[in-house]
Amino acid sequence: MIIENLEFYIVLAASLMLLSVFSSKISDKFGIPTLFIFLGLGMLAGSDGILGIHFDNPNLAQSIGTLALIFILFGGGIDTSWKAIKPVLKEGLLLSTIGVLLTALLTAVCAYYLFDVSMLEALLMGAIISSTDAAAVFAILRAKGISLKRPLAPLLELESGSNDPMAIFLTLTILQLIFMPEGTSFFELISSFVLQFLIGGLMGYLFGILLPAILNRLHLSYYGLYPVFSIAWILLLFGATALLGGNGFLAVYIAGIAANAREFTHKKNLVGFHDGLAWIMQIWVFLTLGLLVFPSELPTIAWQSVTIALWLTFIARPISVFLTLVRTHLNLNEKLFIAWVGLRGAVPIVLATYPFLKGLEHSSMIFNTVFLVVLISLLMQGMSLPWVARFLGVEESVPAPYTAEVPSSPLFYAALKQLYVQKGAEVIGKSLAELELPSEFLIVLIDRQGKSLKPTGSTLFQENDLLLIYCDSKEHFDAVSKRFKSFYM
């Protein structure tokens, strides 16, 4: 039956994806988060929606969500600059660990008194909803042409990427506690926490530094094979880390950051490829989760969900942020903005499918509540972001364009040199990315047998290449030119 209607499902899937892409224009114009629109499209296509597609398979939804999170987290990591996040590393790690834990505990208090559940189930709900999604934040700010001041942008980026593994660990740990066999000790849970993050961190860093080294030495004939290799590498990392008992989500995020810190062949194209892949995954996971929810069931837990969303926004998140960042250099307005931008995204809804797999009694109630809280968070906080950024004065002011004429200087022209690659040079047969040249040493043009080549990361150097070099430091030029075993004019 499915094979006979394959064309119909292909058209349907393509139409939903195209609608998701076009709906981003609505986000640009009205400031509505694109993730909110993706969820809405999924609900409209579902059992209670216009298309009436019946989808009631939490196991499949959880599998799709897990696969999507692998590439979403790696895409976020490889698009993150280590130089940018290094100054805010302490604050980011505090928010993504202690901050997530405090948010989960405070949310659990509210959930315990709102629902007829045990404290462990309330803690489970708090853990599920504890992570944030800065991708939605920056999408809205970019649409409105707003850029944040220097400490905030990298801090929010680091927090959103690194707090997902913590939320996942808390969720799985609390599920283990709920179904914990007799004799399991608290010490074993703490040991599991340390081991998961230690193995995940080490595996992520190892695979992250190996990826550029391998890509630089592959010298593949077709560019299309490089993305294939990177996808396989990420999946291998996640699977191997999980088999060793580590946190695979943390591993792929760290691998992305470690890889971005180095130069490698087709780096710009691969970063762009994984950004597009992450968007595809976000669209599919939100459409799937939108299909999974039954809107007719939401009114029964509507007022409780609104209460939790308000508690999370105005109580739990601000308290966790201010307690976590109490001894940091951030000022009051910056802390207030960080507290406000705790938007929830794909991760909480994916995690809300985990109780189904364990057969938890209140699985449906937890999923519907989390779903509504995410919708409210995206709409309420998302649409107010530009106004809050301006009100708190955390928007980066755009400097006036510099129009003064640059004086002609012989030093500028002296910085351009011609350099020949001689026989026996160590660079022969190696790619530009593989050399990891300093940023002060720029190869502008390559003349090879009378033909001019524009150098890219995958360009291989050959004997007798004539290079046009721009370098504003004699020290760097002298040090690097020796590697070309060359003479210059």
Explain what this protein looks like in three dimensions:
The protein is built from 20 helices and 4 strands. It has helices spanning 6-30, 34-45, 58-78, 82-85, 89-114, 119-128, 134-143, 152-178, 186-218, 225-243, 248-260, 267-292, 302-324, 332-340, 346-351, 354-358, 363-392, 410-414, 432-435, 474-481, and strands spanning 416-420, 441-448, 451-453, 466-471. The protein has a 4-stranded antiparallel beta sheet with strand order 1-4-2-3. The model is unreliable at 399-414 (pLDDT under 50).
For this entry, give a set of tags.
mainly alpha, four-stranded antiparallel beta sheet, 20 helices, 4% strand
Summarize the structure.
With 489 residues, this protein is mainly alpha-helical. The chain has helices at 6-30, 34-45, 58-78, 82-85, 89-114, 119-128, 134-143, 152-178, 186-218, 225-243, 248-260, 267-292, 302-324, 332-340, 346-351, 354-358, 363-392, 410-414, 432-435, 474-481; strands spanning 416-420, 441-448, 451-453, 466-471.
Distance between the termini: 73 Å
Helical residue percent band: 55-70%
Query: In which order are the strands of the major sheet placed?
Result: 1-4-2-3
Binned strand content = under 5%
User: Mind describing the biggest β-sheet?
Assistant: 4 strands, antiparallel
Question: How would you summarize the topology of this molecule?
Answer:
Layout: H1 6-30, H2 34-45, H3 58-78, H4 82-85, H5 89-114, H6 119-128, H7 134-143, H8 152-178, H9 186-218, H10 225-243, H11 248-260, H12 267-292, H13 302-324, H14 332-340, H15 346-351, H16 354-358, H17 363-392, H18 410-414, E1 416-420, H19 432-435, E2 441-448, E3 451-453, E4 466-471, H20 474-481
Antiparallel strand pairs: 1-4, 2-3, 2-4
Helix pairs in contact: 1-2, 2-12, 3-11, 3-12, 5-6, 5-8, 5-13, 6-8, 7-17, 8-11, 9-10, 9-11, 10-11, 13-14, 13-17, 14-17
